[in-house]
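Might you be able to check the backbone structure tokens below? Thank you kindly.
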Amino acid sequence: MQFAIVPVTPFQQNCTIFWCDQTQKAAIVDPGGDFDKIKAKIDELNVTVEKVLLTHAHIDHAGATKDVAQHYNVEIEGPHKEDTFWIDLIPMQKERFGFSHAEHFEPTRFLDQGDTVTVGNETLEVYFCPGHTPGHVIFFSRDAKLAQVGDVLFRGSIGRTDFPRGDHAQLISSIRENLFPLGDDVRFIPGHGPMSTFGEERRTNPFVGDAAR
């Protein structure tokens, strides 16, 4: 499993491209905006897009979903069905945050704990991690020891829970019960900012590390 990170939107959201070495088939995770920038990276990598994956439906993660899915004629997998209300609020989010273009979309498949998604010959495990949004999921490659966690966990921080239907206690539980057990050596790509490992966050994160229990 290979990956490339493409920061998009004024929020510098980490849109991530996963692709399979054997097949050169790819998934675009969280295409929040700047479709031209995403397309340029796909062209540079010379991979074939086969799906869009979504961790959650905040506009900086999902704003260009319809554009990407239509351009590549691919399906949309994720997030969890509890984020439907955020998808329905895409037009309101566009106005509130000043996005010039974003459209409502319909996921082909909602995801839940225990599901898997494929990228070429690679398999990603799905973990339901609500708290930042009620329908947030994360994607984990067990073979690569690599996760894309959206806005659940960051290097030295955690996701915001002051948006509608956010839940701080639920977020902490998602991190400790679903993410940290995957292994200290797992690298993760957050929704914003630099990568880290679950072990590093257990040791040093002031919000959810072992010392904060």
